[in-house]
Write a structure and sequence with these properties.
With 262 residues, chain A is mostly helical. Chain A has helices at residues 2-32, 48-55, 57-90, 95-102, 105-108, 111-123, 133-158, 161-170, 175-203, 207-213, 220-226, 232-259, and strands spanning 33-35, 44-45. Chain A is globular, with a radius of gyration of 23 Å. The two termini of chain A are 44 Å apart. With 339 residues, chain B is an alpha+beta fold. In chain B, a hairpin with a 3-residue loop joins strand 14 (281-290) and strand 15 (294-301). The chains are: A mainly alpha (262), B alpha+beta (339). At the A-B interface, helix 8 and helix 9 of A face strand 6, helix 2 and helix 4 of B.
């Protein structure tokens, strides 16, 4: 009886895992096969699609642009959000509820709707924002906000903020020093986790990039979209490369956040 | 002039008055306790002294200097928190060195001071540990060392023992007292535990609803409660209505009288009693609780319920529920109390 149950549970877990892995695996095999047309099995394997991809300067550029936009947005988010959460938690704890509502807004409005709104808003502005990476940096900042705020806010609730700052004050530290020397090191875990999470999410963002900027500043996802008409093997290789990169990031994130037991 | 002088100190949060017109003085090297139930304003008073909460009115003088508007950083007041408030990202050593570092003294220069301080709180060998690797009692000793190393003029202790279990609490209590006496440190201790207050303090300020109800040494506070609240808070005082007291003890009083449970005896036959012991009154045992070395009886005398504590000398003497007994009162210990 017990064994049967265990068998059933294992069966369900493995079954679902396989089901989830099949598309990835299929894409992977497809990206490795030289051609795979009317037969059940591919005709032969080769790395030529990867070769073609990695030597395509358009891909390297798109990748670079995506990295730039993501890192810029996350830098902006860190610089703005960290002090903001500190102010919310230390001076106005009641605002936490308001913030929790505010940060849900990017989720509440579908990207298609908000991007049209942004287009209307910035179309006639005196400086050209639409079509430049800067509008994406701003938009991605709002997308990253919920992830950043939640994770860092959790780190804040985990420490005894008020007493720590009070103790630091009485030992002669200014509020800024207390924040830099005591609070910031304790937020490292939450900050890193949220950064990696937002990073993987932003790297895969398509809707805003397509509507607000499009081909004028080709990011990774736009490149992928533009390449959809070329060989399926090629796009598979592209997807797999992107996937491997995200996987690496996730792995790094879990390593970094688990490693230091503060 | 006293070392610490508090003058008409008041604190409000919005419309809520936490305390108003508090006055007191503390001498150098004195161990003073702010005692009171939770919400009486004792912690806020302590935080106001530290400068962590701003006073709305009044003055704080320390050693002849008005520090009412001084930033907490410059008050030279040390504080130990109930939550320890150790910096989780720093080792024991770095925690202790923090105050010196803020003064521009490096860990290297202060090595000897840090070592001495850790020896004082008996934490030598734990320099490289992180707070989360220490027990509650050890953490609180790190907090104490961290507060003491900068040689504060006053040490504030905000319920430092409340989060600890009984045995560690007892040890740390003694350790704090020893260090306080050794350094002749002016100390203000906040607690809601009357036993702790009695054991540690030179003087107790008993607070309720933002007022200091009574101040004095532990013995005076315990034996001469100023009013009903103090009587209720300091022990298990029996309160007897004025009418009944007149009738029972043949005394003149317009207010209630208080008598401690240990000042009422159960009459033993064949024993001679002194003059200050009242004539016997019959009573019935309603219930009893075993507190260890003491048995607490709940008794009924006429229409009054009384609590009487007797030493738990032997189990044969335990009186079961319903027993009829005779009670004697120590007339010297009967205190009229105000409301």
């Amino acid at each position: 009886m017990e064994n049967n149950k265990l068998f059933l549970h294992k069966g369900i877990v493995y079954g679902i895992s396989t089901l989830l892995l099949i598309p990835i695996l299929a894409t992977f095999i497809y990206s490795l096969s030289s051609s795979w047309g009317a037969t059940i099995l591919p005709d032969g394997f080769s790395l030529k699609w990867y070769g073609a991809l990695l030597t395509d300067p358009r891909f390297i550029d798109a990748f670079g642009r995506s990295l730039f936009i993501c890192i810029a947005s996350l830098l902006l988010a860190t610089v703005l959000v960290l002090p903001m959460i500190f102010v919310v938690f230390y001076y106005y704890p009641k605002l936490d509820k308001v913030m929790n509502l505010l940060i849900l807004l990017p989720f509440a409005v579908p990207p298609v709707v908000s991007s049209v709104g942004l287009l209307q808003l910035y179309a006639d502005s005196t400086f050209q924002l639409i079509g430049t990476p800067w509008i994406l940096v701003g938009t991605y900042f709002t997308i990253a906000l919920p992830f950043m705020y939640r994770a860092i806010a959790n780190s804040f609730t985990a420490i005894n903020l008020k007493d720590l700052i009070d103790a630091a004050h009485l030992l002669g530290a200014s509020t800024t020093k207390a924040f830099l020397l005591i609070i910031l090191p304790n937020l490292k875990k939450g900050l890193l986790a949220s950064l990696f999470l937002s990073f993987s999410f932003l790297l895969g963002e398509f809707v805003f990039a397509n509507i607000l900027v499009g081909t004028r500043y080709e990011t990774l996802q736009i490149y992928l979209y533009n390449m959809r008409q070329t060989s399926g093997h090629f796009t598979s290789a592209l997807v797999m490369t992107y996937f491997a990169f995200i996987f690496l990031c996730t792995w790094l994130a879990s390593r970094l956040t688990r490693g230091n037991n503060l | 002039m006293s070392y610490v002088t508090i003058n008409k100190l008041s604190k409000r949060f919005g419309d809520v008055t936490v305390f108003e017109d508090i006055d007191f003085t503390i001498e150098q090297g004195e161990f003073v306790t702010l005692l009171g139930p939770s919400g009486c304003g004792k912690s806020t008073l302590l935080r106001t002294l530290a400068g962590l909460d701003k006073a709305n009115k009044g003055e704080i003088w320390v050693d002849g200097v008005d520090i009412t508007h001084t930033q907490p950083q410059n008050r030279e007041i040390g504080m130990v928190f109930q939550s320890y408030a150790l910096f989780p990202n720093m080792t024991v050593e770095d925690n202790v060195a923090f105050g010196l570092k803020m003064k521009g003294i490096s860990k290297k220069e202060a090595q000897q001071d840090i070592q001495n301080m850790l020896d004082l709180v008996e934490l030598d060998g734990k320099e490289k540990f992180y707070p989360h690797e220490l027990s509650g009692g050890q953490r609180q000793r790190v907090a104490l060392a961290r507060a003491l190393i900068v040689k504060p003029r006053i040490l504030l202790l905000d319920e430092p023992l409340s989060a600890l279990d009984a045995k560690i609490r007892k040890n740390l209590r003694q350790q704090i007292l020893d260090i306080q006496k050794e350094l002749n440190l002016t100390t203000i201790f906040v607690t809601h535990d009357q036993e702790e207050a009695m054991l540690m303090s030179d003087r107790i300020f008993l607070m309720n609803q933002g007022e200091i109800i009574q101040q004095g040494n532990p013995e005076d506070i315990y034996t001469k409660p100023a009013n009903e609240f103090v009587a209720g808070f300091m022990g298990h005082y029996n309160l007897i209505a004025a009418e009944t007291a007149k009738h029972w003890f043949d005394i003149e009083t317009t207010s209630k009288v208080a008598i401690r449970p240990e000042s009422i005896y159960i009459k033993e036959s064949g024993r001679q009693y002194a003059d200050h012991i009242s004539s016997p009154k019959s009573a019935t045992v309603v219930s009893h609780q075993l507190l260890g070395n003491v048995i607490r009886y709940n008794l009924k005398v006429e229409n009054e319920e009384l609590t009487v504590d007797l030493l738990n000398r032997s189990s044969e003497r335990l009186m079961p529920k319903g027993s009829a007994i005779e009670l004697l009162f120590n007339l010297n210990e009967i205190q009229p109390v105000g409301v």
